[in-house]
Design goal:
Chain A: One of its GO terms (cellular component) is plasma membrane. The complex is a heterodimer. By secondary structure, chain A is an all-alpha fold. Chain A has one domain. Chain A contains 12 helices and 2 strands. A two-stranded antiparallel sheet of chain A has the order 1-2. In chain A, helix 6 packs antiparallel against helix 9 and helix 10 packs across helix 11. The radius of gyration of chain A is 19 Å and the shape is globular. Chain B is of the alpha/beta class. Chain B folds into 2 domains: 194 residues, Response regulator (Rossmann fold); 144 residues, 3-Layer(aba) Sandwich (Rossmann fold), CATH 3.40.50. Helices cover 41% and strands 18% of the residues of chain B. The longest helix of chain B is centred in the N-terminal third of the chain and has 20 residues. The chains are: A mainly alpha, B alpha/beta.
């Protein structure tokens, strides 16, 4: 194996990991707090992508992509809020029903996007400073991917700050530790649920903007990331942010390094095998459940 | 603890659910009137919904245009054609169901349709069982030979191999093959590899991405590693956008590293934004930029009906000429009987189409020319080479499938 290819794939691994992380943080949050599996999470990515595209139609150029980030965040968060308040809140005691209902929402959103924007993907053109590349030790690194890694790190940092240092973070941790006791002390548990769900959906929307920098935005763009996102959450140790981050890094690197030897489709299969074996050996995930430091 | 582990099982279940893509269950377009003495029913079966809809709706349009033109000119054997349109929904098993519905419930004489090789393979047993006839309009991988299908799209020796021949003439010696992971790219690349090796050149690498996949970081790293002279691209659909975009970001545009694509036509180029793929090459049997009166007439008629910005592609023209060839064959056979029609079609001799004069060979594939085009900024192709003479179709490549032949 050649060193350049290895370095290249090592970088690609972190790049894929940052996408996995952005796609799965929202799932980890809502699952950690509410034990709700949101099958429509992938469509929040799609929504973020389309919002980025629409923002760039209104504000073309470099400013557009920066503006697209808050627009996609707010837009996806609003959609998440709508789904949570109209559907998930009413079904939250019945996990299987939530699963099916959100799957239905996922199909509706996909078909809605198909009718609205067409079956063929739309393209978000990255500004010049994002479409170039940097050569480092013989490895060409696309700037868009560096940008995505930076955004992922930033999101992760802000999320940690929010959960550990802010009042809402305190409430979230309280609800997570003991929902009934938190409610008894006067915390509005439903509002905390709602906020966290919106936040999770918003992060997914942001991930959608990042995906749009790499490929077309299509009605089913979310579908290709929802399965890795689920895998990351399962492997990370349900609901733990540190675990989610570690799992995203492990899975991203695994799939990128596997691609040195095999095709992309075989690498995806190996990834599934790897996760199945991993949760056989360690069903509690990367981070053991008892760790409460960042356990959300 | 127990709760969490149970929850983890639930999540795994959730992943499995989303892995199972739900087969779309859309109801088909309205069935036509029952055929009476003055009409003859034919089926038009393309994906009107789902991921392939973007490509197949335009083929349906072209087929309907031909049917309308024929009806306006007095129909076939004095009968008006009644087109029964069905939706294959981008799903092979739906294609098979709808084909059997068209033949057994609507009593159609023949069916025009299909796009992906998976849809064709799914319909094949239906047509063989009912002894009906399918007119298939898309280039494909060959390695199939059924009396119940008229293969009008290019066989490998009418698209892939002429493209390779052109590349060899340009002096390219090392090839990188990129494709979507399904039957067409795998088979086409198998054939290409045999020919590249036989020509004493090298296959610098080969990479497949799942159909619809959008992450090409690994593939591009391998391309940078292998440093090929040219890439042969058999990706399908939206993957192409992601591929060209990420290539560009890695500093490899079609201008610095040539790419020859087999699935990018005028419409795909238009949808992708021609700027992204400008300068890349494509091989087809038809380009909208072909000259000739029949082509100009067809383009004008299509644009008049479906909008002046409509792009015309190779499979659309094949769909269009299939309907006209069926009409000619019916008139020659003086019968709508599929068996008689297919025999008549294979002995029709050459007929005029938007892509020039073509004819069906005894193996029920089309004898046609191949063209190489270079994509311009306006989304049209500049034709830079052609095969010269017509190419006789060979379903079984002699190097990849030795000893097999197609006798119908």
């Amino acid at each position: 194996m050649d060193a350049t290819l290895f370095l290249n794939q090592l970088f690609n691994g972190f790049s894929v990991a940052s996408l996995y992380l952005l796609a799965s943080l929202g799932l980890a949050l809502s699952f950690g707090l509410m034990r709700v599996i949101n099958m429509a999470h992938g469509e929040m990515l799609m929504l973020g992508g389309y919002l980025a595209w629409m923002t760039l139609l209104v504000v073309p150029g470099a400013a557009g992509i920066i503006l697209a980030i808050p627009v996609a965040f707010v837009g996806a968060a609003a959609m998440g809020g709508l789904i949570q308040s109209t559907l998930i809140r009413r079904l939250s005691a019945r996990p299987l029903d939530t699963l099916l209902a959100t799957w239905g929402v996922s199909l509706i959103l996909q078909q809605g996007a198909r009718d609205l924007f067409g079956a063929v993907g739309v393209e978000v053109r990255a500004p010049d400073w994002l479409s170039g590349s940097i050569a480092l030790a013989g490895v060409t690194i696309p700037s868009a991917r560096i940008f995505i890694i930076a955004v992922a790190v930033l999101v992760l940092g802000s999320l940690a700050l929010l959960l550990l240092r802010s009042r809402i973070g305190l409430l979230v941790r309280a609800v997570n530790q003991d929902r009934m006791m938190a409610a008894a002390t006067g915390i509005d548990v439903k509002r905390v649920d709602f906020t966290i769900f919106c936040l999770g959906a918003g992060i997914a929307g942001l991930a959608g903007v990042m995906l749009a920098l790499l490929g077309p935005v299509t009605p089913n763009v979310g579908q290709s990331y929802i399965i890795p996102a689920f895998l990351v959450v399962v492997m990370g140790g349900l609901g733990s942010i540190v675990g989610t981050t570690a799992a995203a890094a492990i899975l991203g690197l695994f799939s990128a390094l596997a691609q040195i030897f095999v095709d992309v489709s075989v690498a995806q299969m190996l990834l599934l095998v790897f996760v199945v074996l991993f949760i056989q050996v360690r069903p509690q995930g990367v981070i053991a459940v008892r760790t409460r430091a960042l356990d959300v | 603890m127990i709760g969490r582990i149970r929850a983890s099982r639930l999540l795994v279940l959730a992943s499995m659910c989303s892995a199972l893509s739900l087969g779309a269950c859309s109801s088909g377009g309205g069935a036509g009137d029952a055929p009476d003495g003055n009409t003859v029913s034919v089926g038009v079966l393309q994906s009107l919904t789902g991921t392939m809809a973007i490509s197949e709706i335009t083929v349906k349009n072209a087929e309907m245009l031909a049917i309308e033109e024929i009806n306006a000119a007095g129909g076939v054997l004095g009968k008006t054609i009644n087109a029964v349109v069905e939706d294959g929904a981008s799903d092979p098993s739906t294609f098979a169901q709808k084909a059997s519905k068209l033949i057994e419930n609507d009593g159609v004489s023949t069916v025009f349709g299909g796009w992906t090789s998976a849809s064709r393979k799914a319909m094949l047993p239906v047509f063989e069982r009912t002894k009906n006839l399918l007119w298939y309009p898309v280039q494909f991988e060959g390695n199939e030979c059924s009396p119940n299908i008229m293969y009008s799209g290019a066989q490998p020796n009418q698209q892939a191999l002429p493209a390779l021949k052109w590349a060899v003439e340009q002096g390219y010696k090392s090839y990188f093959l990129v494709g979507s992971d399904y039957v067409y790219p795998r088979t086409a690349n198998l054939i290409l590899k045999k020919h590249i090796e036989k020509g004493g050149m090298t296959v610098a690498g080969e990479a497949y991405v799942p159909l619809g996949g959008t992450d090409f970081s690994g593939v591009i790293a391998k391309i940078q590693q292998a440093k090929p002279a040219i890439i042969i691209n058999t990706l399908n659909g939206d993957s192409n956008v992601a591929f060209f975009k990420q290539m560009q970001a890695a500093g490899l545009s079609p201008k610095t590293l040539p790419v020859m694509s087999f699935s990018i036509g005028e419409q795909e180029a238009q949808a992708m934004g021609a700027g992204l793929v400008e300068g890349s090459y494509a091989a087809w049997n038809y380009f909208q930029s072909l000259t000739g009166e029949a082509n100009a007439k067809f383009i004008a008629a299509y644009k008049a009906k479906f909008g002046k910005d409509a792009a015309i592609t190779d499979p659309m023209v094949h769909g269009y000429l299939d309907v006209w060839a069926w009409k000619a064959a019916v008139e020659k056979a003086k019968s709508f009987e599929p068996e008689a029609v297919r025999k008549a079609a294979a002995t029709l001799g050459s007929f005029d189409t938007p892509m020039g004069k073509v004819s069906f060979a005894a193996n029920q594939s089309l004898v046609q020319k191949a063209y190489i085009g270079k994509l311009k900024a306006d989304g049209q192709f500049e034709i830079i080479a052609d095969s010269g003479s017509d190419i006789a179709p060979e379903p079984y490549d002699a190097l990849a499938f030795p000893g097999k032949s197609c006798k119908i």
